[in-house]
Amino acid sequence: MSRIVTANSVFLAGCVWLLAAPLVALPGGSKPLSVQPALGERPGELLYQGKGYAPNALPVQLSAEHKEQLAPWLEWARANDSRGELDASGTVLLLVPASEGRNQARLELVDRTLKSLDSALGKPAGAQPALLILAQAQRTQTMGSLAESIAKSRPELSGWASNVHLSGGFLLSQPLIGAWTLEGEGREEFDPAGELVHRLAKLYCMQRFGRLPHWIATGIAWHLELSERRKITCFPYRNDFVSVNGHDGWESDLGSEFQKRAKQPLEFQDLAALARGSYQETAAAKAWGAASYWMTARTPGLAAALAELGAAYETESVITKPDGSWERDVHFELSPARQTEILSKHLGPAWLGELHKAFASGIGRSAEKARKSTGSKAPK
Question: How many Cα atoms sit within 13 Å of 261 on the Cβ side?
Answer without folding.
Answer: 19
